[in-house]
Amino acid sequence: MKKNIAIIICVLLSLAGVSAQNATDSTHIAKGNKFHSAQHYLPQAGDFAIGVDVTPLVELLGNTFNGYGTNGTKNTLGALGGSVVNLDYAPKPDVSVMVKYFLKDNLALRANIGVKTHNLTQRAYVVSDVISVIDPFSDEKLIDCAKSYNTGGSAALGLEFRAGKNRIQGTFGGDLVFAYQTRQEEYNYANTLSLLNSKPTMSSLMPAFDASGYRTTNKNYGDMFYGGAMLNIGVEYFILPKVAIGSEVNVMIYYRMGSTSYETREGLNPYTNNLDKREIINTPGDRELVIGTGNFGSKLYLVLYF
């Protein structure tokens, strides 16, 4: 009897041990699955990331639904255009691309780059001075042409530190900032300036004659160079594994330096009575120091990790 009781006790202890082991294993598996799920969502060391600013798209959709800009200038894709650099506040491309490389799970190198070239050609009809003299009733017209060139780019290079183990993560970091912009205008007149026609007819697209009887053929606004640094703070929410929506603000300090602005004019020299050209210096170049909060590159962005 005693022997049978001892055997039953041994069997029960064995079953209890197996049950405890199974419970422990289940706990480890559950924890492992939870850990695996977090890692599946969040970036890890060695990952790359590409992000794009979605603010222009949000503005486009908002302006489409609220009816802003009935002339079509604010609710069309063309409304996404504009200056590469925001001269009033901080250098910021209209649409920029962000790239990251993770040195650690919570530390990444990052760059934000934006470039743009905007060339505009405007044309308008104008009466031909020569034909109007020969045949006053002729309806033949010539074309004045005004061209503008606006080119620039900007870049931010720095480090990003991340905090948080869930799908919402805080981002902190610093960047060095560089930006560049240049702009010029060119005017091609249909009616030629000559000794016999010192004030040829021109369309409203073209600049008016100055007090000396000269007209502008080229206008160069100079080059703008920006250099500085910024501190960033933001948040990212992972809507899908390795896919997040983020936003950030920054404190920036930058110095702007502009080159000489000048234009070329042509006209009849009143002293020599000959046609000549002049180069007029408009500004010697500006300087500006800016410190404040703002947004460079991505204010609201979508980023993919892989």
**Helix-strand sequence:** HEHEEHEEEEEEEE
Strand residue content: over 45%
- For the secondary structure, the number of strands is 11
**Class from helix and strand fractions:** alpha+beta
Mean pLDDT score, rounded?
76
Radius of gyration: 33 Å
Model regions low in confidence, pLDDT < 50 over at least 5 residues? 1-36, 68-92
| Separation, N- and C-terminal Cα atoms | 68 Å
Largest sheet: 8 strands, antiparallel, barrel
Total domains: 2
**Global outline:** elongated
Which strand order does the major sheet show? 1-2-3-4-5-6-7-11
Helix content: 10-25%
How many helices does DSSP assign? 3
What does this structure look like?
Helix content is 19%, strand content 50%. The chain has helices at residues 2-41, 55-66, 129-134; strands at 48-53, 97-104, 107-127, 141-163, 168-188, 214-240, 243-258, 261-268, 275-283, 287-294, 300-305. It folds into two domains: 1-41; 44-305, no CATH class. It starts with a helix and ends with a strand. 21% of the residues are buried.
Brief account:
The chain has 306 residues and is of the alpha+beta class. Helix content is 19%, strand content 50%.
Structural key phrases:
11 strands, 306 residues, disordered N terminus, 8-stranded antiparallel β-barrel, alpha+beta, 3 helices, 19% helix, elongated
Give me the secondary-structure topology.
Elements: H1 2-41, E1 48-53, H2 55-66, E2 97-104, E3 107-127, H3 129-134, E4 141-163, E5 168-188, E6 214-240, E7 243-258, E8 261-268, E9 275-283, E10 287-294, E11 300-305
Antiparallel strand pairs: 1-2, 1-11, 2-3, 3-4, 4-5, 5-6, 6-7, 6-8, 7-10, 7-11, 8-9
